[in-house]
Inverse folding.
């Protein structure tokens, strides 16, 4: 799976939009971009995924650049409960029976300030 | 079904003892994964099952580690002769694999402390 690069940490004011960048310049055509987050002492939580089109769900929006070499996760109105480590992962969605374990990096520690 | 369940949540053991953790996946999910996470790091893949078959093991999974999923439902992860370096959070996840693989859902983890 392709490697991703994320900033180590970011701050955001409560109520503002949090924009978390991710670089994945070696992503291949059949790899999707996934985002998970991990709140302290809990298991990772799935947020959103996409291939090349922008995606939105009740938690967040995912903006993928046209060349697919980077993406941004947007939390539109951040709350204190959004403080967590956010992981950007690229992986194949159609693994054809092969292993599809997620490869986590160190992620971005997002701190929402009151 | 409320999600992936792991037991116990915390385990403290003396070095050299054996420990066993249990994971109950989301009921219709046919894939089950084990990960390990140490402080300040992201989770690291250990092994996964499709139904009852263990299909891949990471090189992180030493001979002292064994995982089973006997009936394709719950899974156990056993660590024999524990070492202090085994202290970590052990995470279980499940997903539905078919033509398209769904996202993986994680449990709360079992935190192991070896003293």
């Amino acid at each position: 799976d392709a490697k991703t690069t994320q900033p180590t940490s970011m701050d955001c004011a409560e109520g503002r939009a949090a924009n978390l960048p991710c670089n994945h310049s070696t992503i291949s055509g059949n790899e999707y971009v996934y985002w998970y987050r991990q709140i302290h002492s809990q298991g990772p939580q799935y947020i959103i995924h996409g291939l090349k089109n922008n995606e939105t769900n009740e938690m967040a929006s995912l903006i993928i650049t046209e060349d697919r070499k980077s993406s941004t996760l947007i939390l539109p109105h951040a709350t204190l409960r959004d403080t967590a480590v956010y992981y950007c992962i690229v992986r194949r969605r159609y693994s054809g029976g092969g292993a599809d374990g997620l490869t986590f990096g160190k992620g971005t520690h997002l701190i929402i300030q009151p | 079904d409320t999600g992936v369940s792991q037991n116990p949540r915390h385990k403290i053991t003396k070095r050299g003892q054996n420990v066993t953790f249990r994971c109950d996946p989301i009921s219709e999910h046919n894939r089950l994964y084990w990960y390990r996470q140490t402080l300040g790091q992201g989770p690291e893949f250990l092994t996964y099952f499709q139904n009852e078959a263990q299909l891949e093991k990471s090189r992180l999974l030493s001979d002292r580690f064994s995982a089973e999923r006997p009936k394709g439902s719950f899974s156990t992860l056993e660590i024999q002769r524990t070492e202090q370096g085994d202290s970590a959070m052990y995470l279980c996840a499940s997903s539905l694999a078919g033509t398209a693989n769904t996202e993986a859902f994680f449990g709360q983890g079992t935190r192991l402390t070896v003293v």
